[in-house]
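As noted in the main text, all predictions were made from sequence alone. Below is one such record, for Short C-terminal domain-containing protein.
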Amino acid sequence: MADSGVRILLDSFVLGALLLASLGFIAFLKGNLLFAVSLWAIVVFAAVLHVSLDPEMHETDDSSSSPMRDDSDTTPTVSTDDALSTLRRRYADGEVSEAQFERGVERLLTVESNRDEAVVALRNRYARGELTDEQFDRKFERLCATRTVENAEESVERGEFASENE
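Prediction:
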């Protein structure tokens, strides 16, 4: 809200400067050069102020005004990189075999295009070795099946959640 108040004040200042510009033009036509130059100096100051502050206003508006911002372009890539780094470290430390490492990389890259936070968390758990291949596959299928409310309701009605024990 403070940004919108500052923006209104800035816009009012610019409108006032435009009024002064028109008065300066009239003063110039009447022959009062000193008065016209002083009014034009105020106009130039207002224009510079508006141009210098306006990009900052747009940056803050873009980052804070939209509660439903889509961070999916950056978050999954970073998380996938983290999951792959974790899996590579575990392979380098000898915690997983070469076959397990290859399967893990294949699984992580297969689901990389999915930008759901739950899938990102699942990838990270799998990379840390907290889930077996079967658990990962089952949980990933479950997450995909419940991506929308309608799909989740259908899964509950079919009783698919009653059979899982972990």
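The chain has two domains: 2-64, 75-158. Residues 33-64 form the longest helix (32 residues). These features were considered when defining construct boundaries for the mutagenesis experiments described in Section 2.9.
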